[in-house]
Design a protein that fits this description.
By secondary structure, the chain is mainly alpha-helical. The protein contains 18 helices and six strands. The chain has a four-stranded mixed β-sheet with strand order 3-1-5-6. The protein is globular. About 5% of the residues have low confidence.
């Protein structure tokens, strides 16, 4: 259990165990702003709550009608099924469809982070502790602003936290100059880089994440020298290493490749407002329901709804043929460990195909919900078989992304040897031969192979000016093998 979950649990226990003495003077039914900002412990609890809010923004759960999940699916790598069809560049994609998650929540994160940042200097504590708390809050604030700017381009800039005294003051709502927003983001991240350590507990923001976000901000500004410098610092720090490809998305992802992974804990969870969070359904979203496959002559389903095949699944979005075409299926280890195999074997002891290859050749069904090439990155081997919800941590940023971003930054800055070194490090880990030349298409292809469905592709394509072109070429939707069609994205849809 990480320290912020533990602090929040302790805070809740304190409320219940010491209420008799508190009731002598006044009653508390919640922690209010004055409580949070009057002590070191209050700030720590406030920071834990900020982590919880941020985690909720970056994960996808059934309670979110539309949210971060959309950006996993609306790219050139996706084949989208069922209710998602109308959401991807079609009739139901409208300006008011996603503001609660994509606009309101980041501004909540910004407001609460600003409250911590503004009040921390007035609280008595060790300076090192203050700098750490403020740094973590400033990274979250910068992260929220960066996501808003990458999504909407024109946003509001406001660092004044809401209080009972100013809550109803008139506000001048006008878009800020993006240069001012980037400047604000970079100052927050530079402060954090100065004060944060690389080595932190799982789920806690450290210097590695701060530098990765700083590099990302620099790339959006066309400052490739700064981006290269920060990725060089991450890679050269000695604090991270590329894992064996078989371990990157194993059930323990709190390993040396992780720059930041969102933590969940079922024991202390069950709700987004609780310390352990409410889990996520990413694994269910990207995998077909193999357990619905039926074979003529077999009275039972040959595949049970078990964790090895993903357990309960939604089958909403799949990797498409374009993504598949980018892999060397014989050599690239990512093809083996990032995706389920085409050939399925029965796992139902009551089936005549138990531990045998299903008859015939894939596809085993014309219904995409039953059988489609499926993503395995979010598979949770520990979740109950018939539940979609997972409490497995999931990756926010990892070292491989720093390599790919660094390769692009060095290439754009004219340092081709360094760019090739970084890209070839990724390829060597995947079992592929080294590249001897590099261009934008090379970077795009390696980005797709390595980072597919990690929530970064949409923003990457937008930044390099290829989003509309790539989506119109390769994005697909349909419900059966015979109904798969392309889509049409308009230029205005980049916002």
């Amino acid at each position: 259990m990480n320290k912020h979950i533990l602090l929040l649990v302790i805070g809740i226990m304190m409320i219940h165990t010491s209420c008799d003495s508190w009731l002598v003077e006044k009653q508390f039914d919640k922690i209010n702003s004055s409580t949070l900002y009057e002590s070191e412990q209050g700030l720590e609890i406030g920071l834990s709550g900020l982590y919880g809010l941020t985690r909720r923004f970056f994960r996808f759960n059934d309670s979110d009608a539309r949210g971060a999940y959309w950006y996993y699916c609306a790219t050139d790598l996706a084949l989208v099924r069922t209710w998602n069809e109308a959401e991807m560049y079609r009739s139901n994609m409208r300006a008011n469809a996603m503001p609660n998650e994509m606009w309101n929540r980041p501004y909540q994160m910004i407001d609460r982070a600003s409250g911590i940042i503004e009040n921390a200097p007035d609280i008595e504590m060790q300076e090192e502790t203050r700098e750490r708390i403020v740094s973590e809050a400033r990274v979250i604030r910068a992260w929220a602003y960066l996501r808003l700017l990458m999504t909407y381009d024109n946003i509001l800039l406001d660092s004044i936290p809401t209080t009972p005294q100013n809550a109803f003051d008139p506000v001048d709502y006008k878009p800020a100059d993006p240069k001012d927003v980037y400047g604000f983001i970079d100052r927050d991240l530079d402060y954090a880089i100065k004060h944060l350590e690389y080595k932190v507990d799982p789920g806690i923001i450290g210097q590695g994440l701060a530098r990765q976000l700083r590099a990302e901000s620099a790339m959006w500004q066309g400052d490739y020298e700064t981006a290269a410098r920060h990725t060089d610092e991450i890679i050269g720090s000695g604090q991270y290493k590329l894992m064996d490809i078989s371990e990157v998305f194993g059930n323990d992802i709190n390993h040396s490749e992780s720059l930041m992974a969102w933590q969940f804990d079922e024991l202390t969870g069950g709700s987004a407002t609780l310390a352990g969070g409410d889990g996520h359904v990413l694994g269910a979203c990207f995998q077909a329901r193999f357990y619905e496959i039926s074979i003529a002559g077999d009275p039972v389903a040959p595949i049970l709804e078990e964790a090895s095949y993903g357990g309960n699944c939604y089958g909403w979005t799949y990797p498409n043929d374009y993504l598949r075409s980018l892999y060397d299926e014989e050599k690239d280890k990512r093809f083996q460990f990032f995706f389920y195999p085409d050939t399925l074997y029965g796992n139902n002891p009551a089936s005549q195909y138990y531990e045998k290859k299903l008859p015939g050749d894939p596809p085993y069904s014309t219904q995409l919900r039953e059988y489609t090439w499926s993503l395995m990155k979010y598979r949770d081997m520990d979740k109950p078989a018939k539940r979609a919800l997972s409490y497995k941590p999931f990756m926010a940023y990892r070292l491989a992304e720093a390599y790919i971003l660094g390769a692009e930054a060095h290439w754009r800055n004219g340092n081709t040897p360094k760019a090739l070194e970084y890209l070839n490090a990724i390829r060597e880990r995947a079992g592929l031969e080294e590249l001897t030349s590099i261009d934008l298409e090379t970077i795009m292809d390696e980005h797709a192979r390595e980072l597919c469905f990690e929530g970064k592709r949409w923003f990457f394509l937008k930044r390099i000016g290829k989003l509309v072109e790539q989506v119109n070429k390769y994005h697909r939707f349909g419900s059966t093998t015979s109904s798969i069609v392309g889509t049409t994205m308009q230029e205005h849809m980049v916002r």
